[in-house]
Amino acid sequence: AMAGLASGIRASEELLAVFAAAKDGNVRFMKVQIEDAAMVVKVSVEIKDDEKSDFEAMGSVLEDDVPCYILFKMDSSTKEGWLLANWVPENTKVRQKMLYASTRATLKKELGTAAITAEIIAVERDEITFEAYQTAVVENEAEKLSLMSETERALKHSANTHVDTGIPTKASYVHGVKIPLSEEAREAIAALKSDAPFSYVQLRVVKDFKEEIVLDKKETLAEGFAAYKSAVCDTTEPRFSLYVSPGEGEDAENVVVFCLYCPEDSPVKQKMLYTTSKSALIEVASELSLAIAVKLEVREPADLTESDMISASSAPAAVAPPPTKPRGPAGARGMIRLPGMTPP
Q: How far apart are CA 85 and CA 136, in angstroms?
C-alpha cells in the first residue's frame, strides 16, 4: 500500500476547505506540510503580481532543511489548473523523503487529480525556478526542448536515459555532452601515459562562466586496492578519477582505471552533469593516447569492490609500450595489477 494511506496520512479538513475556496478565489499558492499524520496548510498567499513574480516570491516560503508541498495556481493563459511542487531538500532525513514522495499521490487524489495539471520534484532551489516551472507546464515538445539547457536536451534525447521516479535523489544516466577540459586537466591526463610523478588524477566539473572539467588533485597512491578505494571515495561530491595501476611482472604494462564516483545523495543536477560529461573526458583521454582498460561507475563505497574491477577489465593492457620495447611471449606479459585477480 502507499505509505501515505498505510500511515493514515490524509488531507486535513482545513486543507480541503482552503483548496476548494482557492479554486475560484484570489489565492496564488499554498504551502502544505505533513504534521501529526495529516497534510495541513502552513502558508497561503494571494495573487500579488504577474505569474513570474509570484512564482519567484514563492521561494521565500521554502526552508532549506524542511520538505513541503507547494500548490501554485497557474494563469489560465499558461495552463488551467494547479502546479504541485514537491520540495524535498537534499539533507532531508530518508524517512521524510520517503513519506513525502509516497504521500504525494494521496494529496493529488484528495484534492482532485484533474486539478493538478503539472508537477515539479525539486531537491535544490535551482530546480524550482520559473524556468523549471515553464518546462513543467508546456505541452508542445518543440517548445519544451527550447527551454532546456544543452545538458537537459542530451538527457531528453539519449537512448540510454534512465529516470527513477519516486524519492527524488536518484541519478539519470545519459552520455554525450561535450564539456571542455581545462589546460591543466589535459596536461595531468597526458602525463599519466609517461613516467609521471603521480599515479592518480581526480577531476571535477565546474559551472562558473561555462561548464568545464578541471583538475581537482593529483597524487601518488600507495599500492593496493584499499588505497585506491580510499582516494576515490574520499569526497562527498561527484568526481572523475584516472588511476595508473602498475602491472605485475617484468614485462607487465601499466593499466589505466577510470571511475565516476557519484554519491547517491548528490544533487540530481550534479549527477546529471557528471554522467553527461563522462564521455567527453574519456574521449580526451583517448585523444591524448591514454587508453582506459577499466571503466567504473560507483554510487557508494560499498559498490567499489575488487571483483567488480576485475570483471570490468576484459580488455588487454591499457597503455601500449614504446615502439622500441620488444614484446615478450604472450603468456608472460603480466596481468592487470588489481588485488585478487587471477589469471584466466
A: 10
Q: Distance of alpha carbon 138 from its chain centroid, rounded?
A: 24
What single DSSP character describes residue 124?
Answer: S
* H/E element, 162: none
Q: How confident is the model at residue 218 (pLDDT cuts 50, 70, 90)?
A: very high
Contact assessment for residue 86 and residue 168, using Cβ atoms and an 8 Å cutoff: yes
> Residue 279 — φ and ψ, nearest 5°?
-65, -35
Give the separation between CA 173 and CA 169, rounded to whole angstroms: 13
Identify the three-state secondary structure at position 294.
Answer: strand
CA 28 to chain centre: 31
Confidence of residue 151 (pLDDT cuts 50, 70, 90): low
Three-state DSSP at 246 gives coil
Helices of type H across 192-339: 225-233, 268-287, 306-312
| Phi, psi dihedrals of residue 289, rounded to the nearest 5° | 65, 30
Q: Minimal CA–CA distance to 102: which of 76, 121, 123?
A: 121
* Residues paired with residue 256 on neighbouring β-strands, in sequence order: 244
What mean pLDDT do residues 113-139 have?
A: 84
Rounded to whole angstroms, how far apart are CA atoms 47 and 24?
Answer: 12
Mean pLDDT for 121-128 is 89
**Which candidate, 340, 284, 291, 288, places its Cα nearest to that of 317?**
291
Half-sphere exposure of 72 (CA within 13 A, CB side): 33
Query: What does residue 181 show for φ and ψ, rounded to 5 degrees?
Result: -105, 145
Using DSSP, how many helices (H) and how many strands (E) does the chain show? 11, 11
H/E segment holding residue 242:
strand 239-245
Residue 93 has pLDDT above 60, yes or no: yes
The reported pLDDT for the residue numbered 70 is: 96
Task: Tally Cβ neighbours within 10 Å of residue 78.
Answer: 15
Burial-class residue 120 by CB neighbours within 10 Å (0-12, 13-18, 19+): buried
Plot region of 231 (φ>0 → left; ψ -120 to 50 → alpha; else → beta):
alpha
Between 22 and 164, where is the model more confident? Answer: 22
CB of 99 closer than 8 Å to CB of 9: yes
